[in-house]
Specification:
This protein has one domain: Alpha-ketoglutarate-dependent dioxygenase AlkB-like (Jelly Rolls), CATH 2.60.120.590. Helices cover 16% and strands 33% of the residues. The protein is built from 3 helices and 15 strands. The strands form 4 sheets. It has a 7-stranded antiparallel β-sheet with strand order 1-2-13-10-15-8-5, with helices on one face. It has a 4-stranded antiparallel β-sheet with strand order 9-14-11-12, with no helix packed on it. The radius of gyration is 16 Å and the shape is globular. The protein binds 2-oxoglutaric acid. The site of 2-oxoglutaric acid has 12 residues, from strand 8, strand 10, strand 14 and strand 15.
Length: 211
């Protein structure tokens, strides 16, 4: 596969490199900085008593393992920021451009985003996104340092899987038969963020979901 070429690591799963321009990336990084300050500040969620290495700020609904709430009862009790309209439009365009039908794209109304920040040591273990009641596709955007993203199967967290390099500006969508595929981030590659993306160090990943 040529660098920059789209790939389909599973049915309904599409990776489109370089989907966001540098200008869009840097604008989104500015938004992320604002979200991170609150009303619910960015924090490392605790899974079974252990803090995740990734820090997360949520929009629309607040994710705390293993549920969504309007108020961040595990942080400061405040209500999370609303889900922005521009992100609904972006999510619909992402679906259209990933091969979903126009009807599927028009019906896509994400109401929740998890915006994650990874420093160079952060990882995310293999997991399924299954706290949502809807099985609408997940739209994922990456900005900043590159990472190794592991995309697996729906049956178990081990093989078979595909390791992909997600770079700044990349879009990854997984829905339909891949919606419940296990996935995770095994490594962040420091000093790989492009100039102009708005993030000097680390990686931001935003996933849109329909609860
Ligand atoms: C999640 O937020 O559930 C993820 O799996 C994030 C994946 C990524 O950082 O690319």
């Amino acid at each position: 596969m040529e660098p920059g070429e789209r790939s389909r690591p599973g049915p309904g799963a599409v990776h489109i490199p370089g989907w966001l321009t540098l200008e869009q990336q840097s604008w989104i990084v500015g938004q992320f900085r604002q979200w991170s300050t609150g009303p619910v500040p960015i924090r490392a969620a605790k899974v079974r008593g252990h803090e995740m290495s990734v820090r997360t700020v949520c929009l629309g609904w607040h994710w705390q393992p293993y549920k969504y709430t309007r108020e961040a009862t595990d942080v400061n009790g405040a209500r999370v920021l609303p889900f922005p309209d521009w992100m609904v439009r972006l999510g619909r365009r992402a679906l259209r451009e990933s091969g979903y039908t126009d009807a599927e794209a028009a019906a896509y109304t994400p109401d929740t985003a998890l915006a994650n920040y990874y420093d160079e040591n952060a990882r995310m273990g293999m997991h399924q996104d299954k706290d949502e009641r809807s099985l609408a596709p997940i739209v994922s955007l990456s900005i900043g340092d590159e990472c190794t993203f592991r995309f697996g199967n729906t049956e178990n967290r081990n093989k078979p899987y595909t390791d992909l390099r997600l770079r700044s500006g990349d879009l990854f969508v997984f829905g339909s038969a891949s919606r419940l595929a296990y996935h995770g981030v095994t490594r962040v590659h420091p000093l790989t963020a492009p100039n102009g993306c708005g993030l000097g160090t680390g990686r931001i990943n935003i996933t849109m979901r329909m609860t």
